[in-house]
Amino acid sequence: MCALCGVLLTSHWAERGSGRRDRVLRVRLLNRVLGHFGLELGDWGGRVYMLRDRKGKTAVVDDLGSLWTAAEALAGRPLDPLDPALVAALRRG
Amino acid sequence: MLVTGFLGSGKTTLLSRLLGRPELGETAVIVNELGEVAIDHHLLRRVDERTVLLANGCLCCTLRGDLADELRDLLSRRTRGEIPPFRRVVVETTGLADPAPVLNTLLAEPVVKHHFEPGPVIATVDAVNGLGQLDREPETVKQVVVADRLVVTKTDVAEPDAVAALEERLRALNPAAEVLEVSFGETDPALLLAPGARDPRDLPAYGAPAHDGIHPFVLFLDRPVDWTAFGIWLTMLLGSRGEDVLRVKGLLDVGAEGPVVLNGVQHVVHPPEHLDAWPDDDRRSRLVFIARGIGKEEVEASLAAFAFLPGEP
Q1: What is the ipTM of this complex?
Q2: Fewest beta carbons within 10 Å, which of B50, B128, B208, B272?
Q3: What's the domain range around B40?
């Protein structure tokens, strides 16, 4: 429990035990994926992420668990990692 | 430890016998229903299934409020000395229950997850009626897919051919689970409680769907994956296709001395465990997927594109 804001601090399984450097790397990798859908992610103070689309609409997300729901809502379409177009784009680099 | 299985498949008989064994001492038991077979146990509790549906409406992400309340109550009563100490809790689900919300409760409820570590999921399947139930009852299929151990019961009254056909079907449906035969609930608790899983290298290459579009397959990766990139890939896959990824389980080479143990049921993923060493000289990542309507090739291609994304700019 955070003494200041009173919220339960939970760590998502994919982010547990990771440090500042991992978080920077995670944002960089996520932006390669999210860019395909016209989205961009930023780190906000090492606590939450800020997701935005090209029109300036934003969403604050806590972790990877809630990121994809928010990203799908902003993008207005499913974000499927099996999508052949996304896979081809990632392979091209 | 979670014991699941369809109505009349022998859950309670198995549990009654197990609880009489010294290996299962200091165990509390939570059941949903008091069946025809009575369980004689000093720490027996009954709960009424009560689920809390979350905003996204996903069934596997529901919290079983009844179970969380009961587990918290057991903890506080143990602390106050009102009940004998216990080291293990066995939860027996109803025959129609989906085990995924039970696992989600153990892994996501803030108090429960700090005091309890999920043990193996054991599903009983009746050797006489099991094949028919798999065809007719979707709950049975889900229970089989989620299990770590599959216990084929009533083998003393079933024809040997029927037992063999059922076991073949179970192995095709859940290649990650071990299949054990039991009659009258007699079994070695060590076999049920042992950690670890069937080695995917022993698995045949499954080509055809095992049941109604459910397709188990195994992936091997020859080089280490970046854990951060893998986490992004799997959370994205479960975010978009989680209801169809019924199970993902295996060992992952992340470039460390030992592998990471991965175990997930739909959207519910156990905290990954880092092992100090590999079980043998083969250090390839090995992942078992049991998925509906998702093919091995597309998962392989997608994972390769994500997991080997260069980590540095």
Answers
A1: 0.91
A2: B208
A3: 2-197
Q: For the whole model, what pTM was predicted? A: 0.83
Q: Which of A13, A25, A36, A61 is best to mutate for the B interface (most B CBs within 10 A)?
A: A13
Q: Are residues B123 and B165 in the same domain?
A: yes
B110 and B185 belong to one structural domain: yes
Q: If you write DSSP's letter for every residue of chain B in order, what string do you get?
A: -EEEE-TTSSHHHHHHHHHTSGGG-SEEEEESS--SSPP--TTEEE----EE--TT--GGG-EEHHHHHHHHHHHHHHHTTSS---SEEEEEPPTT--HHHHHHHHHHSTTHHHH-----EEEEEETTTHHHHHHH-HHHHHHHHH-SEEEEE-TTTS-HHHHHHHHHHHHHH-TTSEEEE-BTTB--HHHHH------GGGS----S-SBTTEEEEEEEESS---HHHHHHHHHHHHHHHTTTEEEEEEEE--SSSSPEEEEEETTEEPPPEE-SS-SSS---EEEEEEEES--HHHHHHHHHHHHTS-S--
Instruction: Report CB contact under 8 Å: A80, B240.
Output: yes
A47: in domain = yes
**What is the number of structural domains in chain B?**
2
